[in-house]
Amino acid sequence: MAFRDGPFENIKVPLAWTAAVVVVVAIIGAIFLLLGDRTTSEGGSSMGAARGGFEAAAGPVGGVFAAPVRWAGAARDYVGGYFFAIGENRRLKAEIVELRGWRDEAIAQKNINGRYEALLGLRTEPAVAMATGRAISDARGPFNRAKLIDVGSTKGVRIGNPVVTEHGLVGRISGVTSGVSRVVLLTDVASRTPVMIERTDARAMLTGDGGDSPRLEFIRGAGSIQAGDRILSSGDGGGLPRGLPVGVAAKGVDGAWRVKLFSDHGAVDYVRVLLFQTFGQLVSPDALNAPPLAGLATAPEPNAAEAGAIRDAAARRQTAQQAQAERARAAAAAPVTPAAAPSTTPNAARPATTAPRPAVATPPPAPVATPTVPADAPGGAA
Amino acid sequence: MRRPVAVRVVGPLQWIVYPALVALAATVVLGTPIQMFGLHLPEPVIPMILAFAWPLIRPSMTAPAVLFLVGLFLDLFWNAPLGLWALCLMAVYGTVLLSRNLLAGHEGLVRFGAYAACTLGAFLLAYLVVTMRAANAPALLPLIGQVLPTLLLFPVANWMLERFDDGDIRFR
After folding, report:
1. What is the pTM of this model?
2. Do B33 and A267 touch (CB under 8 A)?
3. Is B104 a member of any domain?
4. pLDDT tens for residues A302-335?
5. B170 and chain A: CB distance < 8 Å anywhere?
6. How many other β-carbons are positioned within 10 Å of the β-carbon of residue A3?
7. How far is CA B21 from CA A27, A101, B45, B146, in A?
8. A268 within 8 A of B33, measured Cβ to Cβ
9. What ipTM was assigned to the predicted interfaces of this complex?
10. Hey, of B46, B58, B60, B79, which one would you mutate to test binding to chain A, going by the most A CBs within 10 A of its CB?
11. What residue stretches are annotated with the Rod shape-determining protein MreC beta-barrel core domain (chain A) (predicted)?
12. Helix (H, G, I), strand (E, B), or coil: what is residue A132?
């Protein structure tokens, strides 16, 4: 009798059953984890502690693999610099000649802009501090587009900070540990970024879908976008600074408007984290709901002295309005002077600036301001 | 005189722990941010091999538990919703475990068909979960870009089955 036909054959059923029990328990556990993992209002995860602990451990490991890649890239650039030096030199000279004109124009525009801002009393946005980091790991799947970078809370990075390269916006910080941060890219399926079309100032929502070119949704206004328009961050909602370059609008094969990201122009290896505080981080809800503001809706009743002052002010205001209306009526009923009479000559067609009022043969009745609040209304005009 | 035969025991360390560690290491290596000629490294779901091969090799309590942890590792490493890949891998494991008697003894195209069906089912489940959570459907092109490399890993799953199926002589 073969060994497989022996009593061990009976082991098969209980093993399969016990394995099935473990599978069912694991599936239930996974479902509970899925239901419990929610995105917080700041853009982080409700499982932030678990993710943070993992990323703190995974960061150095990813750094070990990313370092040789970085060294190889630096060596390639070093060698390539020798081989392509002459062509590069010619190209840069031509670029400098072109940019000199732009530089002069930028200086002039900056001067004019500064004067306008001073005249209008505009409150300009302050400069934003930055922290530079390197990408050490990458998730490129359809369900998640994210990167680990090697800067963390020790350099001031916080959840929600925007991340840019020298080309444009890349994404936002979604998790922070002391030395490693997680960046959710603009292309992630859960990413939503308020943007604007530079040419028309129209607003839209940049929605990632796991592909390289995220969609533009909720575009405001008909004909407000065309292929080639530059897309910038709008700053709506206070989550991002206004005017960060994002990409160029293009029509997708599915007919939807999409954005070719500027950050795709080169490898996203070195990034800068803008230490930009969102409105939600600058202002706490408790401060907004503090008694001075909250008390506006429930002002106390005025006492006798305050009510008397209110009535007095209302009576004075009504008297002044009646006197003004009387003066206007008297001026309208005044006799017409010959100097101000209408003339048939072309020169007299223009209104005489020295005349007190343009005279007409039959003056219409002057509008009389009627008081809308009775004098004895308690506090009605206050 | 009969010579003693060296008995090589293929225990859980050989067919569960080492393959799981190799799968995790390969996932971390493929997560390196390299871009050459505008192309990135592929990002297959390597533990799909384990989810398909382990229940066919032998039903076990350790294997699904380890697979669950591997799924959680993927979720944390890729910043996916926690539990997404754990659920999808366990679904594959459970399906193959249920159809074990059906698949046993088959090789070649039938086995690849089963692997492809399991892979597509897992990705469909992940697609539905992500779509419901984000209220936004992922694009199909990057989805294909992850499904294809995962399907191309079938020879590794096949090798694991050939290597470990019926490998423990205590079960003969």
Report:
1. 0.72
2. yes
3. yes
4. 888 889 999 999 999 999 999 999 999 998 887 6
5. yes
6. 12
7. 22, 59, 14, 21
8. yes
9. 0.87
10. B79
11. 136-273
12. strand
